[in-house]
Amino acid sequence: MALLLILFTLIGGITLSAQSSINGTFSRRAGTIETTFLTFLTGTMFLTILILFFGSGHLLNLLHAPKWQLSAAFLGTAYLMLTVIAVPRIGVIAANIAGIAGQLVIGMVIDHFGWFHSLVISFDMKRILALFFMLIALYFIYKGNKRSREEASA
């Protein structure tokens, strides 16, 4: 089962990179906020159909959730909009690596302190080293993209 979940997440990452690239290009034509709006409008329509046919019937429970949990919707919107802004300027891979590095940083902090009812998993050298290598990868990818862009414009 774990292998299947890893495969699903891998496919999710593939679709996220494709979406980032397409949205980044589309935002030049339609605008950043408009592109983000289209993504969420389409997602809303798709999820409405899924809820109608496969939902568990507990949609109104959203109204009873603690207010801090509702912030996740804003955070998702902010992530998408920031990615739409970044991709045309720094490229898909640099934007994705930066996003993953950000996820690792805050994920390590959340795990370490057990925020949001997560497991408590303390910082260790392996995690810090993994983050360090991710940041090095981001540096080299960004520098390579910048050099390629300069060579193309020369």
Report on this structure:
- The protein is mainly alpha-helical.
- It has helices at residues 2-30, 32-54, 67-90, 92-113, 125-153.
- The protein folds into two domains: 15-49 and 68-90, no CATH class; 92-148.
- It has five helices and no strands.
- The chain crosses the membrane at residues 36-56, 68-87, 93-116, 128-145.
- This is DMT family transporter.
- Pfam families: DMT_YdcZ.
- InterPro entries: YdcZ.
Q: What characteristic shape results from the CA principal axes? A: globular
Round the Cα radius of gyration to an integer and report it.
19 Å
User: What structural category arises from helix and sheet content?
Assistant: mainly alpha
Helix residue percentage: over 70%
Rounded mean pLDDT score: 89
Separation of the first and last Cα atoms: 51 Å
- The helix count comes to 5
Percentage of residues in DSSP E strands: under 5%
* Uncertain runs: none
**What number of structural domains do the residues give?**
2
Q: How is the main sheet built?
A: none
* Strand and helix order: HHHHH
Give the tally of β-strands.
0
Organism: Bacillus xiamenensis
Keywords: Membrane, Transmembrane, Transmembrane helix
InterPro entries: YdcZ
Transmembrane segments: 36-56, 68-87, 93-116, 128-145
